[in-house]
Amino acid sequence: QVQLVESGGGSVQAGGSLRLSCVASTYTYCMGWFRQPPGKEREGVAWIYPNSDNTYYIDSVKGRFTISQDYAKNTLYLQMNSLQPEDTAMYSCAAGGSGSCRQLHEYKYWGQGTQVTVSS
Description:
The protein is mainly beta. It contains no helices and 11 strands. Strands 2, 4, 5, 6, 9, 10 and 11 form a 7-stranded mixed beta sheet that branches. A 4-stranded antiparallel beta sheet has the order 1-3-8-7, with no helix packed on it. A hairpin with a 4-residue loop joins β7 and β8. The mean pLDDT is 94.
């Protein structure tokens, strides 16, 4: 089993920044950040291949969000800048197996989530 614990969520005004952290008991082939806005389905936000440090983002967060890792400490980060009300969601980190790392079904382990609320 892989355990993941997120932290760093909070409430900010539009244009503000937050840095989310996720401590994993161990890394897997795929590591990523997902979010679920109110009344909407969960969606992927950013992904990383821990071994290569390659990263990927959905278009709506490119240039604003940065996923990174401290590989030695099994810690994943999501730096979120220029936050907008549309970014309001429960953010979760996840760990999975092989594949593209960009589909929900590829992830087996999930953290409990941390709430991010952005006011206009």
